[in-house]
Structure formats: structure tokens, C-alpha cells
Amino acid sequence: MRGAIFVELYRVRAAKKVDIAVPRPLDLNNAILPEFQQNPTQYALLYMADCVIKRDPQDARDVVLLPTASKAQEASFKKLIPNLGPCLMQGQKVAFSKPIIEGILAEVLYRGTVEPAPVAENK
To answer: Within 13 Å of residue 91, how many CA atoms lie on the same side as its CB?
Structure first.
């Protein structure tokens, strides 16, 4: 569900002609919501997506912006596949589906186009 929301958010930004061409680099230390900071799987997925986007930004954007399960999206997925392995954290073994990849790419792309929320200070 989380991924689908980010896919839609990113598609809406693109439809509004918001500049999505070059997202800001993702600060993984501050990008993860507090409830995920101790979740190594969430961190690893964001790390992988950030790396894939840096290696092939156009196909990463296409995977998110093209209609889900379309032939065009499938072609972009095929171009991205070689980037997945090198972008995994050392020793990481994961199994994920195309919707998971689409969603995690969308999250990193979307977060790169919006101003980060201020980090709350502990008092």
C-alpha cells in the first residue's frame, strides 16, 4: 500500500509539470520515518532504490510514470534489472516483486522532489 501511494504522488507531481527531472539526493539518515529507522529491510530497500536511480534515472522514472503492468513499463523494468544486484547492500538477500520495486523507486523519486520535513528535536 505504501508503494502505491508514492507511485500516485509522483505521477501527480509529473502531471502538474513539477520539475521531476533531477531529484535531490536522498539523505537516507533523515529520509526514513522514525518507525522504520530500526527496520533494516526498509533502509536496504531505500538504499537500493536510491542507487538504481543514480545508475539509470530515466528508466527508473519510466518504471514509475508508465502505466503499471504495461508493455512500456515492462521494457523499462528489463533495462533496470542489471542495476538491482550491484545496488544491494553487501550480504543482503531479498526477494521482491515488480510492484515493490515500482513503489520503492517512487518513494525515493518523490522524496527527491519535495522539501524534506523538518526533523523534530528531542527535548
So the answer is: 1
Grid coordinates belonging to 95: 526477494
Summary mean pLDDT of the chain? 83
Q: Taking a C-beta distance cutoff of 8 angstroms, is the pair 30, 40 a contact?
A: no
Residues 38, 26: Cα–Cα separation, whole Å: 18
Query: How far out from the chain centre does Cα 54 lie?
Result: 11
Distance, in Å, from the CA atom of 8 to the CA atom of 76, rounded to the nearest integer, reads: 18
Tell me the pLDDT tens digit for each residue of 89-107. 888 777 789 999 999 999 9
**Where do we find the cell 539518515?**
29
pLDDT, residue 74, reads: 96
Supply φ then ψ for residue 57, to 5 degrees. Answer: -65, -35
Are the beta carbons of 113 and 14 closer than 8 angstroms?
Answer: no
